[in-house]
Write a structure and sequence with these properties.
2 copies of one chain form a homodimer. Chain A has 413 residues and is an alpha/beta fold. Chain A is built from 14 helices and 14 strands. Chain A starts with 5 loop residues before the first strand and ends with a helix.
Amino acid sequence: MKLGELYCSRCSARLPFRYQDMKCDCGGTLLVAYDLEQVAKTLTKESLQLRYSSMWRYRELLPVRDPANMISLGEGWTPLLRMPNWENKLPLKQLWIKREEQNPTGSFKSRGFAVAVSLLKQAGATKAAVPSNGNAAGALAAYAGRAGIQAFVFIPMDCPSLIVDECPLYGATTVLVDGFIHDAAAIIESGRVEQGWVNLGTLKEPGRVEGKKTMGLELAEQLGWTFPDVIIYPTGGGSGIIGMWKSFLELKALGFIDCDMPRFVCVQEEGCQPIVDGVKKASSKTAAAENAQHLSSVGKIIPNPTGMRVPNPPDLELLLSIVEQSGGTAIAVSKEQIAAATLSLGADGISSSPEGAATWAAMLALCDSGWLRPSDRVVLFNTSHAMKYAKLGTSAAIPIIKTYDEFMVYRNL
Amino acid sequence: MKLGELYCSRCSARLPFRYQDMKCDCGGTLLVAYDLEQVAKTLTKESLQLRYSSMWRYRELLPVRDPANMISLGEGWTPLLRMPNWENKLPLKQLWIKREEQNPTGSFKSRGFAVAVSLLKQAGATKAAVPSNGNAAGALAAYAGRAGIQAFVFIPMDCPSLIVDECPLYGATTVLVDGFIHDAAAIIESGRVEQGWVNLGTLKEPGRVEGKKTMGLELAEQLGWTFPDVIIYPTGGGSGIIGMWKSFLELKALGFIDCDMPRFVCVQEEGCQPIVDGVKKASSKTAAAENAQHLSSVGKIIPNPTGMRVPNPPDLELLLSIVEQSGGTAIAVSKEQIAAATLSLGADGISSSPEGAATWAAMLALCDSGWLRPSDRVVLFNTSHAMKYAKLGTSAAIPIIKTYDEFMVYRNL
């Protein structure tokens, strides 16, 4: 099968496939088109039952053709975990968490970079750069290392230091930027031609959206070829929202599923909430965020959800259109809500990134406001490990003992 | 199907099933027995093809019967990653890494505690304690949280602080011990009756070995129902070695596989090497460790492989017997070798724990010494994420910039 063309998500123009520069002349984002009649010949519900549990099981819907170019570290097919303890407490009958932290680089970013780096390999590119609030940098570093491609990562200096530290471990040239992610992006654009970098920033190339798309494909398959009613997703640049939306359109076009699209909920951090503001403006309604219950801060560790800190998403219009078309919403949560959610998830055995915990906080707020209905089947995305955001020194309060008697002294304090 | 009996791995005595106290009167370790004729009625290669990708796919070979008692966080069926870049460089035709860090708690310990905590749930127990060099503590904390069981974890104070920190996040009572893991174990034994703790230490109960067994079942299935020639495994208490050995015996008894057992290689840290010493003594040969090439230290970060620091494995005799029967060996590696291995794996996109990196170092040494043959199909186990062992402050050397010009200054230094 030949490589898909590209199509414009705004004006529907068709263009030949390319692996850089995803802006259409009309300003819309270009996405990968597939010959779905061709896809349907080999990608069937039955054929999938016998395929390996990796995101490459959907290879007909990914833009890499030669297996030698598929750079894989064991990504995808992450667990979709049911939350029975909470279904008994909340007015929600069915609640799941997609455990994206179980990807090879400890975050959902593995998926996008597996495909993006595979496309670079396919094209013979040798250098790639990315501006990142954290997990994207680690993912590029890892997949580029595997592919023998030189990685350059530019990370705002307020990002979690463990995420920064893992990049040189994977062999990437690692630089901290005194600024935001768009400042990091500007540095890459300044040097792109001179350095021979392919810019793998959000929506700058077609692979990351295609990789993220597999979250939607998996979700549908893991739910027995249905869609959930609601997807609550921490949103920065939004390639996951765009990817999952695209995956559902493809599944409908392939005839795999014939039901309503899920309502997409974009979760952001209070104070950095362009999608929330955009939804508010579009609908002129009170956004759900204003009904959100402010939980008191119970955690000592309040990490920053840097992954959601994208003040200028590359295609805000497309995100707003997906939220609107799906009957979804956008909601901002506070650091205190995130800290409380981290402990709730922790108590149920789940190590959540602040962005993942933000989806929990959003779910609680949307239950309170009545936006979520008890009959809704809801999926949250835990995008990364708590650990990656850890600050050392928090264990200062943990007692040190030598004997059982000392334990008893501590217990009785 | 009724719960399996127990059998003694030393004298073959049969006993009724129990979930505490795994010592036979003869001193041997008690393991779970199954009615394999009964198992074979539903567990077949064909039935497995359609089962969910979790370690519970092998439920007939696990000692939990009621699905309501199966405490699952999405463990098992981790990727078995081929290492083509290194197959081209090393005298080894087939090299794989089992990526155990992709388990829910970021380490292989998820497997054992999923089963151990499920057994507690099945028995109605309410409190559990474990002595741990790190990842076992986090796993007990997570699974106990999920099950609504109170967890008490006792961790030697030289263990990685991030691993310590995650235990209270999961709601566990967390205590640092000024001593070794056997000192932590002694504290638990002192308080066990008074506190009502079930001790989930290595080989103290039947669940952890059964959970670890699934690594062997998966390995065989992922390799198309064959065994690899060699398994290189970082060994502390050794329940993984015992579990995998048991799984292979069960697969042979079930008629799933009819080939030679893999050679088991136990990897330990120089200076804490009871298995290496035991093998040396038994065979009166020079251990492979002495031929190990000492690599220079190239990493700034040299974390401690605390998971292998078990001076007194609970059943050393059984471990030595498995190594001998399988034609395997044991090898000690240095911290410098581990640091170099961490960077080699990192450059190929893999974040390895020091214990996982130790298996890489052992593999290199065994290639050098000729113990590994080019035709051997070799599997290494990466038991946890590098991240969990991270020390902060290592990013001090990472440059901070504002502009592309500043990047160029840094590049030209």
